[in-house]
């Protein structure tokens, strides 16, 4: 610790702060990229699922803390409930807003997605509150980092560890299991997969559910770190996560993870070494640069359109 | 689904059409009601500012109407929500003008007020805001019929500067803002004031409201080791920044404007809000009329909020001007607003040539044990 000079430790602080932010972007970007990979749709209501996940987590945590559960139990149960609830939302949204439009023009489900996003936001304003509400610091006491806490806060370490675990779990699911194989088959050629006996409707629903659960999980972690939520928290996060998905190559799962981390680090270093005024300038500047040299994103497959 | 919905939609359309007809049939006779518009954030995350404004206007108007109205006519209020969004504000302004209002009280936020200004100017409608504090509104002179019952940010910035230099004795200050009309405007004024007083500005940066977190910026500030952090913006970002700074172990005092002086700031930031300084309109709770209005609001289960009393003063001044002018003519109204002193919840106030209030000022507050306390220095 002492061996590091002052600017070196500042670099590390910025690195961890960017990594934390980036891993949240990555978690949410996975939802965008999975849905795009399987049905070629950009689910603009994904940011709102994130927001609803945070509200469910807050409600569950509130009830459990009245019942005097201990902190870890509250955290685990709140996260589980939020994920299940968000998965149910993801499932329903797909059935209500996208499935009836499957096979119509490409723009129709996109408009439907934007409408869904507005609907959910207004719904939370009416059903919950238009105000900011405070979110309990569920993850604060999990680690005692001692001297290293100046480098990375305990809540940030929790975000890092859990989001990496979640992503690793997802990679295994996609690469090693039968479900993952079916998903990959549908994303390659949906009709052929159906001919070979893959239930494509069920797999599409499952994709939505997994993506939504990941977003809700990210929402719990970041809300416990930031300490406040409102109906609009999904908006900026949604846009950034979408950017991360495009950056990494939309449709590619490792790409989404990589894109999120790159975006988070870029923002953090831009703020630290230039000015937070230019945070977004650098974030979107990187996007433009990468799309100029690799139009399909860093890990995206460039497919030539057959005429 | 479609078959079921269509009769409902047709029914709804018919209903609105009928309602529309009713409104048009109103006569413009001498005893018809005087229409006054109110515009502000009545929904969305800045609603805690706008709703008390609406409530106090309703209270004042009910009282005036019960006592026989003004010039023998009743007052009718048309409220429109702009959610503090500039793009909505211009629509709201056009809508109110379309309703035929003689004057508008509003808007809540500076950005929205600035956006709507030219619409009101072109329609020649007097506007009184009770919370838009951007200096440009009056000093810029875009609308000669704009008034406000709250002093502008320049007065606020001067007080903050004085407080930072004389009370907190700061030598190095970090200035952060939210890039908005109000937040950045105030931050620029504080920065200029501090520079003139010989204080070193070690950092001047804008944040993106709604960003996931501000930890990179907070680490940068912590590294620069300022004596004071001045933040220009509203309470949602304020509570986020101060919580994250305190969690990081940064003990530097924060100074902000009245955009943070809201009960929800303390509610959300909790223990991290302790010791936060803000400048906000001076304490007026000892004025008899203020006590009366606050008590009446309490009976209805309402609070004066941060700007409710300023809004009560605005409607009082407007109604007084209508009475003194003897008409609702825009020129006569503006002249009457300038030339008359009126007893309000802010004390005796009048307006200067530019439309700024005379007789109301700012003081400094600190968060102590979960409440705002006036700082005497």
TrEMBL record, chain A:
Protein name, as recorded: Branched-chain amino acid ABC transporter permease LivH
Native organism: SAR324 cluster bacterium
UniProt GO molecular function: L-isoleucine transmembrane transporter activity; L-leucine transmembrane transporter activity; L-phenylalanine transmembrane transporter activity; L-valine transmembrane transporter activity
Primary location class: membrane
Taxonomy, superkingdom: Bacteria
Keywords: Amino-acid transport, Cell inner membrane, Cell membrane, Membrane, Transmembrane, Transmembrane helix, Transport
Membrane topology: Multi-pass membrane protein
Transmembrane segments: 24-42, 49-67, 73-93, 157-174, 203-223, 281-300
Pfam families: BPD_transp_2 (PF02653)
PANTHER family: BRANCHED-CHAIN AMINO ACID TRANSPORT SYSTEM PERMEASE PROTEIN LIVH, HIGH-AFFINITY BRANCHED-CHAIN AMINO ACID TRANSPORT SYSTEM PERMEASE PROTEIN LIVH
Similarity section: Belongs to the binding-protein-dependent transport system permease family. LivHM subfamily.
From TrEMBL, chain B:
Family assignment from sequence similarity: Belongs to the leucine-binding protein family.
Record keyword Transport present: yes
Native organism: SAR324 cluster bacterium
Domain Leucine-binding protein: 33-359
InterPro entries: Leu-bd, Leu_Ile_Val-bd, Peripla_BP_I
Keyword Lyase: no
Entry's Gene Ontology BP terms: amino acid transport
One Pfam short name: Peripla_BP_6
Keywords: Amino-acid transport, Signal, Transport
PROSITE patterns (UniProt xref): PROKAR_LIPOPROTEIN
Signal peptide: 1-19
Protein name: Branched chain amino acid ABC transporter substrate-binding protein
CDD domains reported for this sequence: PBP1_ABC_LIVBP-like (cd06342)
């Amino acid at each position: 610790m002492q061996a590091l000079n002052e600017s070196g430790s500042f670099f590390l602080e910025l690195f961890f702060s960017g990594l934390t932010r980036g891993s949240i972007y990555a978690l949410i970007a996975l939802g965008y990229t999975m849905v795009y990979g399987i049905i070629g749709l950009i689910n603009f209501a994904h940011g709102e699922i994130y927001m609803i996940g945070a509200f469910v987590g807050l409600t569950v945590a509130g009830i459990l803390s009245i019942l005097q559960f201990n902190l870890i139990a509250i955290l685990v149960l709140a996260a589980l409930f939020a994920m299940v609830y968000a998965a149910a939302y993801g499932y329903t949204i797909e059935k209500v807003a996208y499935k009836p439009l499957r096979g119509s023009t490409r723009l129709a489900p996109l408009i439907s997605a934007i409408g869904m996003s507005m609907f959910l936001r207004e719904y939370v304003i009416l059903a919950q509150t238009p105000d900011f509400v405070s979110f309990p610091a569920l993850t604060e006491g999990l680690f005692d980092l001692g001297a290293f806490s100046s480098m990375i806060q305990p809540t940030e370490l929790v975000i890092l560890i859990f989001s990496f675990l979640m992503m690793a779990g997802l990679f295994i699911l996609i690469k090693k299991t039968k479900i993952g194989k079916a998903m990959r088959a549908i994303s390659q050629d949906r009709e052929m997969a159906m001919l070979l006996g893959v239930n494509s409707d069920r797999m599409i629903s499952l994709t939505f559910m997994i993506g939504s659960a990941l977003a809700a999980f990210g929402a719990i972690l970041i809300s416990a770190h930031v300490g406040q939520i409102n109906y609009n928290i999904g908006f900026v996060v949604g846009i950034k996560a979408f950017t991360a998905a495009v950056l990494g190559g939309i449709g590619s799962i490792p790409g989404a993870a990589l894109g999120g981390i790159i975006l988070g680090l870029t923002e953090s270093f831009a703020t630290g070494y230039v000015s937070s005024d230019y945070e977004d300038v650098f974030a979107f500047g990187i996007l433009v640069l990468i799309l100029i040299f690799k139009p399909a994103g860093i890990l995206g497959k460039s497919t030539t359109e057959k005429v | 689904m479609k078959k079921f919905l269509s009769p409902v939609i047709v029914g709804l359309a018919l209903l609105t059409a009928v309602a529309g007809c009713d409104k048009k049939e109103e006569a413009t006779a001498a005893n018809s009601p005087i229409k006054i518009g109110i515009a502000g954030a009545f929904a969305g995350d800045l609603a805690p500012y706008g709703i008390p404004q609406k409530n106090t206007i309703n209270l004042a108007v009910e009282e005036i109407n019960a006592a026989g109205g003004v010039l023998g006519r009743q007052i009718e209020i048309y409220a429109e929500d702009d959610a503090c969004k500039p793009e909505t504000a211009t629509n709201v302004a056009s809508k109110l003008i379309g309703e035929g209002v003689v004057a508008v009280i509003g808007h809540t936020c500076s950005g929205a007020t600035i956006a709507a200004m030219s619409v009101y100017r072109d329609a020649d409608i007097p506007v009184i805001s009770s919370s838009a504090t951007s200096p440009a509104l009056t000093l810029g002179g875009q609308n000669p019929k704009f008034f406000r019952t709250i002093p502008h940010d320049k007065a606020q910035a001067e007080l903050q500067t004085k407080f930072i230099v004389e009370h907190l004795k700061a030598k190095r200050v970090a200035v952060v803002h939210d890039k908005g009309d109000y937040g950045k405007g105030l931050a620029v004024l504080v920065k200029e004031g501090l520079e003139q007083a010989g204080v070193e500005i070690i950092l001047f940066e804008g944040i993106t409201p709604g960003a996931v977190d501000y930890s990179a910026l907070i680490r940068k500030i912590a590294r620069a080791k300022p004596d004071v952090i001045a933040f220009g913006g509203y309470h949602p970002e304020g509570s986020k920044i101060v919580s994250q700074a305190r969690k990081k172990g940064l003990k530097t005092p924060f100074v902000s404007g009245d955009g943070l002086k809201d009960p929800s700031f303390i509610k959300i930031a909790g223990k991290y809000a302790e010791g936060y300084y803000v400048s906000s309109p001076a304490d007026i709770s000892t004025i008899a009329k203020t006590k009366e209005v606050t008590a009446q609001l309490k009976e209805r289960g309402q609070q004066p909020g941060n700007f409710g009393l300023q809004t009560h003063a605005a409607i009082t001044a407007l109604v007084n001007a209508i009475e003194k002018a003897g008409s609702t003519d825009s020129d006569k109204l503006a002249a009457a607003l300038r030339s008359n002193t009126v007893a309000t919840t802010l004390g005796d106030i009048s307006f200067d040539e530019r439309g700024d209030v005379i007789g109301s000022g700012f003081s400094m507050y600190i968060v102590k044990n979960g409440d705002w306390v006036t700082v005497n220095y």
